[in-house]
Each structure stands twice: as structure tokens, then as C-alpha cells.
């Protein structure tokens, strides 16, 4: 674990052991993400005054801008969808039309905005509010406004500022990352429905998405549902060839451990970060990446989490 990560006091989480899974090539960025997002953890006060703490704060500001730029760019791509395409089906989200995907993504933006506006001490449980969605083609301009309102709210907050989310008390960076991933994946879903197909996810966005999946989404679901005995103790390694990132996961009955040491893998996935992220989100088949070892281990985990 890096010096920056060692300056962290972690809150107890029953479903996952948090460690830094990231390779040296991108360790600074992901150390910052680890510090600021893991289930409402806080930095040790003496460490925050050190040179390391100053470097961390600088990179936090850079990371915030990357998140916001990504939300804006993918939001603009959604808003630019041709109105004639709104009725097309979305293959990666059965039952949806493109219009449904636009409305869903707007609802997620409204949800995040409501949590952030309410503050860290709010106990209210919000639901996505899309009651004002207009009919017809106007949904695209409406979505653009909802996306802009989310960005305005996110700009008001520092990444390590206390906040609340559906997981409980956390920090504003949680929502910056969560909305980056939400709009990125659904932008891909909607573009993939169009004749021209979808652009790949940006490499850094996809790598950050895999980190979120392995540190929050998958552990949260596995912690609630559990894993079959046949999967317990199995090791999955994920290697992004374009970013140099590596994630090593050991499966438990009630969660996963994200390991920072190298251990033998039962199955290894290797490919571009975008391709890996899309496989883990069940948007594409595992055959789109290089897979070595026992595929049933990966399939078994994904069948449980069904993200």
C-alpha cells in the first residue's frame, strides 16, 4: 500500500477488505480515489498536514475535474442523439428504448443532486424524480438541463467534503465517481443502439469504473446475496493492457478481498480497460477479452451480481 493510502483511517465494512489494487503506472490517481471514497473514510489529521497530504489534495482537484469533464462529455453525447433514434431498442438493457435510457440517466442525475443538496446529515431516502419529463423530442433538451444541474451541484463540493449516499455517510467524491460511471455506461448503451455503434469508454474512466466495481458495487451485492461454496476462495485477476492497472480479487462467501499482492489466479481477464469494464458490467461477452483459466469462476460471480 502506498504512503498516501497508509495515511487513511478506514471505516469498518463487513463485505470487503480494502487495499490498493492499482499498478505503479497509475498509483497516484487511484490512491486519491481510494482515500476519498471508501465508505466514508477519513484522513489522519497529522498526515493531512504532511507533504504527502499536500500532494494528495492537489491530485484530488485534478481528479475532480476529470470526473466533471467526463460527465459533461458523455452527457453531451446523450443529448446529441438524433430524435429519430429515441424509439430504438437498447440491446444491452432489454426492455428499454433509447428514450427510456435517456430518462433513466436523468433520474440518476437527479438522485445524486438531491443527496448532495440535502447534506451529509440528511436521513432522507431519495428516489429518482423524473415527473417533469416532457413528451417527444424535447426529452433530449430536458436531459441536457438535468445533466447541467448535476454538474453545477458537483462543482459546489470538494471531493473529500462529507456527503450522504445510498450506502450511508460518505464524501462528495463518491457521487462524482458514481455519476461518471453511470453516464459513461449508459452513453455506451445508447450509442450501441444506433447504426454507427458505440465509442469505447475512455481508458481512465473505464479503469476507474473497474476500481469502483471491485471496491463497492460487487462487494455490496455479494455481501447481501452471498456466493456459492464452489466460488469461495477463488482468485480472479483483471489486467488492463492500456493503463497497466491490475486488480486481484479473492472471493469470500460474503464479499471479496481486493489484494495488493500477486497470487495465483483461477481465471485472468486481460484487455483494454474499456473492454474489461464492459464485460464486468455484462454489456459484452467475456470473449471480447483474453481469458485464461476457469471461465466458470467469472461466470459464477457475474451471475450472482447481475449488475
TrEMBL record:
SCP2 domain residues: 229-288
Presence of the UniProt keyword Isomerase in the record: yes
Gene3D superfamilies registered for this protein in UniProt: dinb family like domain
An MF annotation (GO) of this entry: isomerase activity
Pfam families: MDMPI_N (PF11716), SCP2 (PF02036)
InterPro entries xrefs: DinB/YfiT-like, Maleyloyr_isom, MDMPI_metal-binding, SCP2_sterol-bd_dom
Protein name in UniProt: Maleylpyruvate isomerase family mycothiol-dependent enzyme
Domain Mycothiol-dependent maleylpyruvate isomerase metal-binding: 76-191
Source organism superkingdom: Bacteria
Species of provenance: Tsukamurella conjunctivitidis
Gene Ontology CC terms: plasma membrane
Keywords in alphabetical order: Isomerase, Pyruvate
